[in-house]
Amino acid sequence: MKFVKLGNMARIICGGSLDRSNSAYWNGSIPWVTARDIHDGNIIDSLERITEFGLKKSASNLLPIGSILVPASMALENVVINDVPVAINKDLKAIIVESLDLDRNYIQYFLLSKANNFEISGNEWMKNGHATEILANINIPLLPMKEQRRIALTLDKADAICKKRRATLKLANNFLHSIFLDTFGDPVTNPKEWPIPPIAVKERYLQIHNKMISIKEKLANELVQSNFLFNSLVASVFTSPEAA
């Protein structure tokens, strides 16, 4: 299997910083993406926005659609692609794939598969500001474009299933909490003004309360397992004797 250096196939762009005390820089139309926005596969908006004037005064650039955004800390659990033009702050790096031999979604999943490898060494190197060098020296398996797209499409489908599962678990957890509060109210403030119950009723209440806590813990564990299974799947796709 042939490998290529990421830095030879893509440009790696650094983010910038911006003075928060200058109101002329903020609340514009340009998404200002920070590490807080890096939590899903694609970026369509950000928590903050900047103005054209702010962009000119920062060291950042307006990144084209399809850039791969990576935390500068090299914690690669979250690697996203922007679906709209964005600017990034200094906590992020952007990878702009220029080679026609690499699929950006394939690169995204490959970086996700290496999260555990680079998080440890990356944090140590980051003390000396070498995140760009780390990214540039990552070896990418250069598969035929058809195979790259097949891998990316397969993992897209798996990711969609996992996202639905995670959303279902979160809804179930929130619903359980809401039902409890609607039925009993907050046991600390007692907004429903329940009378002080006899011991037997208190014991039954505690049984219900403990049962609900147990269910919530199971839901939380299932959420962790869902994330782990997807990350394991991504890692296994890129595990081969040649890559070992």
Describe, in plain words, how this protein is organized in 3D.
Helices cover about 50% and strands about 15% of the residues. The chain is α+β, with helices and mostly antiparallel strands and about 240 residues long. The chain has two domains: about 5-140, Adenine-n6-DNA-methyltransferase TaqI, Chain A, domain 2; about 150-235. It has a five-stranded mixed beta sheet with strand order 2-9-6-7-4. A hairpin with an 8-residue loop joins strand 6 (about 70) and strand 7 (about 80). The chain is flat, with a radius of gyration of 23 Å. The termini are close together.
Average of pLDDT: 83
Q: Tell me the β content.
A: 15-25%
- Largest sheet at a glance? 5 strands, mixed
Report Rg: 23 Å
Layout of helices and strands, plus pairs?
Elements: E1 3-5, H1 6-9, E2 10-14, E3 26-33, E4 42-43, E5 48-50, H2 52-57, E6 68-71, E7 80-82, E8 87-88, E9 92-97, H3 104-113, H4 115-126, H5 131-136, E10 139-141, H6 145-184, H7 199-237
Helix pairs in contact: 3-7, 6-7
List keywords for this structure.
48% helix; Adenine-n6-DNA-methyltransferase TaqI, Chain A, domain 2; alpha+beta; 2 domains; 5-stranded mixed sheet
Task: Give a summary of the structure in a few sentences.
With 244 residues, the protein is an alpha+beta fold. The chain has seven helices and ten strands.
